[in-house]
Known about the structure:
The chain is of the alpha/beta class. The chain has twelve helices and five strands. It has two domains: 13-161, Rossmann fold (3-Layer(aba) Sandwich); 172-256, no CATH class. The protein has a five-stranded parallel sheet with strand order 2-1-3-4-5, sandwiched between helices. Residues 21-22, 24-25, 66, 92-94, 99, 145-146, 248 line the site of one iron/sulfur cluster.
Amino acid sequence: MTAPTPPPSGTPTLAVFKLASCDGCQLTLLDCEDELLALTGRVHVAHFLEASSAVEPGPYDLALVEGSVSTPDDARRIRDIRARSRFLVTIGACATAGGIQALRNFADVEEFTRAVYARPEYIDTLATSTAVADHVDVDFELRGCPIDRRQLIEVITAFLAGRRPDVPDHSVCFACKRRGIVCVTVAHGTPCLGPVTHAGCGALCPAYGRGCYGCFGPSGSPNLRAMIPLLHRDGMDDRDVERLLRTFNAAAFDRELPRDGEEP
Ligand code: SF4
Ligand code: SF4
């Protein structure tokens, strides 16, 4: 293996890391294609195992972290990554909300390991899958399962330019209105989480006539107390609602659920 070419002095360094995840969000970075070529002229990619086996130990100017903390090793690694990174941005539902693997948070993880593995004593896992921000300080959380490539480029360029990313936390509903998409709930009675889901996908599902199932996680100030009766009205029972909310962002939506005795 040839040694990596040293970056020109002053070139910011970018590192991409993975914890418990499917790699889909890192693939979004590779999927940027044209923008990626321009980007590699502006940054030095010092650690990105999905793209290159050449790695440098840091410190890094910007670290992108995919995946949730679901093992003791993840918890140790994220503290180490934080210590070596000037800015740390988490990417995707796994890293920002615990991901689909956070379904374990509502069950007994030991029961799962006994059911799935012939030798469960070899499995070293935490009882929960949690967001990176539950363990270390995070400079920005980019949502989605997977993330949106335009938002990713905006976040990277913003941090390199020293400004806050322009990624509003309004809802998918808002994005539908901006695109002039007919509301699937009003027009067809289709259950849709668009009113409480973070924008970023460009209202992809409603554009094709189907309801949003929340893959970008909760929007800013989501009103689930108002949302749940609407889902019931559109034919869902309590079990359906629970299943709808418990997908890629189960833990994040669970935090937003109204608790008994809580004011709206
Ligand atoms: S957020 Fe979704 S696409 Fe991204 S790593 Fe997790 S499961 Fe994969
Ligand atoms: S599920 Fe919702 S947030 Fe995800 S792509 Fe569809 S409309 Fe967008």
